[in-house]
Amino acid sequence: MTEQVGHIAVLVNPASGHGVGADSGHVAVERLRARGAHVKVYQGADERETVALGRQAVAERPDVVVVVGGDGTVSSVLGPVLAAGIPLAVIPGGTGNDLAREHGIPLDDAAAAADLVLDGARRQVDTGTVTAADGTVRHFVTVLCAGLDSRTNERTNRMTWPRGPARYLAAVYLEWLRLRRFGYRLELTGEAAAGAAGSGAAGSGAAGPAVTEPAGTGPAGTEPAVAPASGLRVLEQDGYMLAIGLTRTYGGGVPICPGADPADGLLDVTLVQAMGRFRLLAFDALIKAGTHVERPEVTTLRVSAVRLAAPAGLVTYADGEPMGPVPVTVEARRRSLTLCVPA
Predict the structure, then answer these.
(1) Whole-angstrom Cα distance, residue 132 to residue 136?
(2) pLDDT digits (tens, 9 = 90+) for 234-272
């Protein structure tokens, strides 16, 4: 046992994973109680009520908060958890479960995942904040996206048919038919890691307060514009997809930011530049293999904070949930969360 654990708060989102969350929650609670733990369960009738109960659970100062659900459920209660400094455990019960994937938490064995509360290691990992133009702050734990992916998420949420994975695939196809390029503007306000910026594979550069200029010209004839502006650098580039990651994957294991380190205090930025519609289709296989970052059509950066501007109406998504419309400021919070992981 990692340390003496007294009160364990288990927050169950029954809406996660089309009912998987409720089933996983039952298994996890039974396992913890069978091992002698004092468990208090918080389960709402729907996601909104579950989030409210999560805040109540944190306020009662348990030794560990256990979230049964997906990445969206984790991010929805992350603010109170961080403020209280309470360790977090995850029982995967969503559709993507990318936080669990990143840290080796069992995806299909709720009992084994529950054992990590008592037997696992405690790892300090990064979280991210998304600050909207009106000052609203939201938190995330995996990847933020803005572009084709976020519009696909938005369309999926609006659709009522078909059900299951087919609905997401239908949304992808419809967005591809209406493919739109976005004029991204990234104000790189945070520190950069050495050799972490480039077009295609990461280029070389020295660590410092500004990111090394990405080299090369985009395939659509648009050259990335990088210029100093009041101590920061600005990247302007037309593209289809933008991901800002704390972890390597999103969408259930897609390695959109394959070089991301979840505990380095930095954001990995992946920007897929504008290209032909059918050429973009071919990129799907590269992205799923994590080799897209080696291509000249992809710009990668690594910074601690970035302000993102894009055409009005574009909504950012992180952990599969809406984070608000652009412009937004995204910042990494280094090792701000204590997570229960395999020893």
Answers:
(1) 5
(2) 999 999 999 999 999 998 888 999 999 999 999 999 999
Q: Look at the block and give the residue holding tokens 């280094």.
A: 334
Provide the residue count of the chain: 343
Type and span of the H or E element at 175: helix 165-177
Residues 337 and 201: their CA atoms lie apart, in Å, by: 30
| The last residue of a domain, from among 91, 119, 147 | 119
235 conformational bin, left if phi > 0, alpha if psi -120 to 50, beta if neither: beta
Rounded Cα distance between 143 and 251, Å, is: 9
Instruction: Report the alpha-carbon distance of residue 118 to residue 218 in Å, rounded.
Output: 51
Cα–Cα distances (Å) from 183 to 82, 237, 274, in that order, read 34, 6, 9
pTM value? 0.86
* CATH code of the domain covering residue 231: 2.60.200.40
Close Cβ partners of 12 (under 8 Å, ≥ 6 residues apart): 21, 22, 25, 41, 42, 43, 50, 68, 69, 93
Q: What is the DSSP string of 192-251?
A: B-TT--EESS------BSSPPPPPS--TTS---EEEEETTEEEEEEEEEEEEEESSS-BT
Residue 125 forms part of a structural domain? no
DSSP state of 15: T
